[in-house]
Amino acid sequence: MYRVDPNDHERISIPMETAEIVQSGRSLAVRLPKEFRFQGKEVLIRHFADGVLLLPIDQSRATLEAALQEFEPEFKPEREQPVAEKREAIAL
After folding, report:
1. Which of 15, 43, 58, 74 is 20 to 30 A off residue 83, Cα-Cα?
2. SMART domains, from UniProt (predicted)?
3. What is the rounded CA–CA span in Å between residue 59 and residue 55?
4. Tens of pLDDT along 37-60?
5. Do the domain assignments include residue 38?
6. Quick check: is 81 in a domain?
7. For 5-31, what is the HEC assignment?
């Protein structure tokens, strides 16, 4: 899995900004800079690799897929799938 050192964000080739994380009760809130504000009151959220993706609810699946294509290939987590074990059938 490709991991980004949070202290080394300047090394990432994708231009990025920073946002402040604020504890609000038992939840975390992220204060987005003005240029990243969303319309509406809710966003879609997706956890992937070591990050989170936020999209306005009115965005289509095609927009989500296009946004994910912006990440470099090595940013996508690789997953090894072990070979399935041979098991005994369950007697009914």
Report:
1. 74
2. SpoVT_AbrB
3. 7
4. 888 788 888 888 788 888 887 766
5. yes
6. no
7. CHHHHHHCCCCCCCCEEEEECCEEEEE
CATH number at residue 21: 2.10.260
What single-letter DSSP state applies at residue 90?
P
Tokens for 72, please give them: 């470099």
Q: How far is residue 11's CA from residue 73's CA, in Å, rounded to a whole number?
A: 16
Q: Is residue 86 part of a domain?
A: no
CA distance 35 to 29: 17
Compute φ and ψ for 85, nearest 5 degrees. -75, 150
Q: Can you tell me whether residue 67 is helix, strand or coil? A: helix
* pTM: predicted TM-score of the whole model, two decimal places: 0.45
pLDDT at residue 83 above 80?
yes
pLDDT at residue 20 in the model = 92
How far is the C-alpha of 50 from the C-alpha of 67, rounded, in Å? 16
Total domains in the chain come to 1
